[in-house]
Automatic annotation (TrEMBL):
<dbReference type="InterPro" id="IPR027806">
    <property type="entry name" value="HARBI1_dom"/>
</dbReference>
<keyword id="KW-0479">Metal-binding</keyword>
<dbReference type="InterPro" id="IPR045249">
    <property type="entry name" value="HARBI1-like"/>
</dbReference>
<keyword id="KW-0378">Hydrolase</keyword>
<dbReference type="GO" id="GO:0016787">
    <property type="term" value="F:hydrolase activity"/>
</dbReference>
<protein>
    <recommendedName>
        <fullName>DDE Tnp4 domain-containing protein</fullName>
    </recommendedName>
</protein>
<keyword id="KW-0539">Nucleus</keyword>
<dbReference type="GO" id="GO:0046872">
    <property type="term" value="F:metal ion binding"/>
</dbReference>
<keyword id="KW-0540">Nuclease</keyword>
<feature type="domain" description="DDE Tnp4">
    <location>
        <begin position="143"/>
        <end position="295"/>
    </location>
</feature>
<dbReference type="GO" id="GO:0005634">
    <property type="term" value="C:nucleus"/>
</dbReference>
<dbReference type="Pfam" id="PF13359">
    <property type="entry name" value="DDE_Tnp_4"/>
</dbReference>
<dbReference type="GO" id="GO:0004518">
    <property type="term" value="F:nuclease activity"/>
</dbReference>
<comment type="similarity">
    <text>Belongs to the HARBI1 family.</text>
</comment>
Length: 341
């Protein structure tokens, strides 16, 4: 027992510094350099200065706290397993998780998940142009929703029970060609349809302006309404023309970036494959924190976890015809692009 205690006491101080880069990457799902970057952004956040925690005799340095959170995010290990490994109490780990999630949400979130400026849109569109058929132009991003599995909530559980028959929180994301999130919306219960999530997000109110008055556009699946700033595929009624089928093929190939982004996010931060928490607010902040760290990793070119990446399966999330609000400008733009292919 004494030997086991000694091992856990020395894990952070003695074992972690000896990890080879690939060992560190495998365990914390990012490089040590990226962890240092995250620590540098968190260092100035209120409430994250070094201090002691319940049941502890010494202050816990920020770097250690960040590694504890990253191990939590990177795995499905229990709180007890992680706290034992880092030689802290479970209550300390829970408090550290809450403090860092709050700091990221309040002070770091908008620094790393933000819409590109109008002057950045031409370059972004040019990069998307080179993904697949270059005659499908002026794409600046792709939007979709992803279900984050959670335990059965204590309140209004039926609202969170989705069509795939598990409890979930919806993450709506818009990503660019590098799989970096430009916009996220987190918190809608899993039973809600993607189109309703969109229509109740800031993206719905500002999408036209964000896309430079409809000059540029996002790509979304058939769950969304067709807009001048949001292009969706043709519904396959069995009578699509060759050009319409071609449009759908190219659209799907370019839109795949958002499926890859969600896949990379969940592959890196495996806690998002099932979040076993009670507080919906804390669940949402955990998801936001994962998205922020995801973007930081991409900015640092920290992409080693791309191996074994899986794609999101969001098939069947089709909105009833009556709730789709397509507009004439969107239809005209889609026809124009279709004729060009």
């Amino acid at each position: 027992i004494r030997e086991e205690k000694k091992k856990t006491e020395e894990y952070y101080e003695c074992t972690v510094p000896l990890y080879l880069p690939e060992q560190f990457q495998k365990f914390f799902r990012m490089s040590s350099d990226t962890v240092d970057i995250i620590c540098s952004y968190l260092a100035s956040c209120p409430g994250l200065t070094s201090r002691s925690y319940p049941g502890g005799r010494e202050e816990i340095p920020l770097h250690k706290r960040v590694l504890m959170l990253l191990r939590y995010m990177a795995s499905q290990e229990t709180l007890l397993e992680i706290s034992d490994r880092f030689n802290v109490t479970e209550s300390s780990l829970i408090l550290i998780r809450r403090e860092i999630n709050n700091a990221v949400f309040n002070s770091v979130f908008r620094r790393f998940i933000k819409w590109p400026s109008i002057s950045d849109l031409p370059g972004l569109a040019n990069r998307f142009k080179n993904l697949g058929d270059n005659r499908f132009t002026n794409v600046i991003g792709a939007v979709d929703g992803s279900h984050i599995p959670i335990q059965r909530p204590l309140d209004k559980a039926n609202c969170y029970y989705n069509r795939k028959q598990f409890y979930s929180i919806i993450l709506q994301g818009v990503c660019d060609d590098s799989l970096k999130f430009m916009d996220i919306n987190v918190g809608w219960p899993g039973r809600v349809h993607d189109s309703k999530v969109l229509k109740n997000s800031s993206l719905w109110d500002t999408g036209f302006i964000r896309c430079d008055g409809g000059r540029y556009h996002l790509l979304g699946d058939a769950a969304y309404p067709l807009k001048e700033w949001l292009l969706t595929p043709y519904r396959d009624n069995g009578h699509l023309t060759r050009k319409q089928r071609r449009f759908n093929e190219v659209h799907s190939a370019k839109r795949q970036v958002i499926e890859r982004a969600f896949g990379l996010l969940k592959n890196r931060f495996r806690r998002l494959q099932f979040i076993n928490m009670i507080s919906i607010d804390e669940i949402c902040k955990t998801i936001v924190c994962a998205c922020v760290f995801h973007n930081i990793c991409i900015l640092q070119n920290d992409l080693d976890v791309l191996d074994g990446i899986f794609f999101e399966d969001n098939d069947g999330n089709i909105a009833p015809l009556q709730i789709l609000e397509s507009d004439a400008q969107g239809q005209a733009k889609r026809v124009q692009i279709t004729n060009r292919l």
